[in-house]
Amino acid sequence: MNELFSSISLLLGGFSSILTPSLLLACLVGAIAGTLVGVLPGLGPSAAIAVLLPATYGLDPLIGLITLAGMYYGAMYGGTITSVLLNVPGESASVVTTFDGYPMAKAGRGGIALGIASIGSFIAGTLGLILLTLIAIPLARVAIKFGPPEYFAVMVFVFAMVVGLNNEKRLKASLSLFLGLLLATVGQDVVSGTPRLTWGSVTLLDGISFLPAVIGAFGLAEVVQNLMTPAEFITDGKAKIRVRDVFPKRQDLKDSTGSIVRGSFIGFLTGLLPGGGGSLSSFLSYGVEKRLSKTPELFGKGAIQGVAGPESANNSASTASFVPLLSLGIPSSGTSAVLLGAFVMLGIQPGPGLFSENPDVVWGLIASMYIGNVMLLILNTAFIPYFIWLLKISQRTLSVIVATLCFVGVYSLNNSMFDIWVMILFTILGYAFKVYGVPGTPLVLALVLGGEMEYSLRQSLVMSMGSPSVFLERPISAVLIILTVLVIVMPPLLARYRRNKSSDQVS
Amino acid sequence: MRMRWNHESILFLIILAIALAGLFGGTKLPLTARFTIGSGAAPVIYAACVLVISAVLIIKALRNKEPEKLIPLTGKKGLIFVLLCILFAILANFLGFVISLFIFSVPALVYAEGWQFKKALPFALIWTLVVYWFFVKILSVPLLPGIFFSS
Questions:
Q1: Interface with chain B: mutation pick from A159, A194, A222, A227, highest number of B CBs within 10 Å
Q2: In angstroms, rounded to a whole number, what is the distance separating the alpha carbons of residues B71 and A84?
Q3: pLDDT tens-digit series, residues A101-118
Q4: Domain of A168?
Q5: Is residue A192 part of a domain?
């Protein structure tokens, strides 16, 4: 109970510290930029955060973090607009919203779909924040006891989950993961100082920076994909929305309340899982809503629950992904990996010590997310027509604008053209990955965590005088290793069992 | 069974080549150290995993009887865009960041986005000036000056 009161009082402290014009402006800028990122199909939140990260150099860390975090959860709101009105998901978590959102728009109920999505996103975002406020400190208290074996076990578990959750593409996800781990070893070895895989290049001694890689693989590669296969927008006038169309009626609210609450909790739980994230949560929520519905036949034809549940879930998931990031310093998705990079670049080290060493930053950030959610609710109800207008005028300039920001952003990281070449190489690789269905997230997570994981392994082995049993002798790492084994072994066994069962039924 | 090289198998072949390079580089380093693994162990383990997985994926891609998912080059817009990015990276060292950006923007607008040249030219100029003003003047980002502006 004491912990609860302490969290609440720290949160109130966070609120009082961010109620300044500059921090509120940072929150608004992040929210607007995030909505735009969500609206524009050529740019995902991870790439946008990476691209705009250099613009936060020299700023107060809290201002930078509030802006970048606002972009993350703001993108989840913005993605709905194009999904509903144009049948084009602005980002991957909004794909599910097209199933019922677009049919609603065709039936002249696009405004209602957007309104209910905004309200659902607001409720889910706020519920997610309350849960984040409640569990972040207890989790950080547990994590502060972590030593190298626990950290190694957590990272192995994260990788196993990220690969394991790619059901159909487990082999390709493994390839992406190990390629990322291999690339993360390039550079000077942190323990012995020996150059590794540098082939005599002095530039490679610093290793492959992950931001140029992320910006290439997620940002420019998306632009190339859009140029190769441009999204087809409808131009039949259905995209026209007036502000008064956005407010849902009482019956719509009544029909959606259960879906919003369920979506919030599903989203939060999946957002905590490594590799879970917005897309998985929205698909899960859609499945649950369809199963629970008395009229499942309406799903896919404009069921409001098919919009309310998934939209709430993806917002809640984006909030939940801050829990492992802030408490453990472990990113659970590609976007939170980029945010981790942002924290480090702004001089803040996420992890168990964050809550005691930088309470003003962490609680200011959490408080800003509450305020950002209110701003986004207003932005995404009252300003939808303007975002549609911006989408239309930006369509034919997007590639040049994004490329310019990528060039400047990547160059300014180290004032090095080498980073631009790294970005271009990862653009080509990222595009090829997209075409052949190789997931990019494991590669990025491996690039971020690979070095740290190897270092933890080597430290753990030194601690135990070379005995690998150290991972099974400590309870937390033992549990995590067992979970990792289950995540790797169970899916193929279950698939085999199902195959055998179905073949038995046939014979 | 007849097998034919396709784009997908070539992608995994390139990754396999990277793995071979990693394996070769890793084996030159010590694999063990006192009580722990050596600096070469991680590259060797990861490269071996990449090698095995990419080999399996190459075989799968070669055996795949479904019509190949070709990288759509018909529009060529994306390819032109990538080539322009490469051109930018080459030119920036000589002409500087800002001039190269202008040179990149005009053909990118014309060939990748379908603008008319007479409209692309002023837009690219304004855009380049905005970038220069914001990043160099406001944020003091030291962009490459190039041969014309280096002191």
A1: A227
A2: 29
A3: 888 888 888 888 888 988
A4: 2-144+154-228+243-463
A5: yes
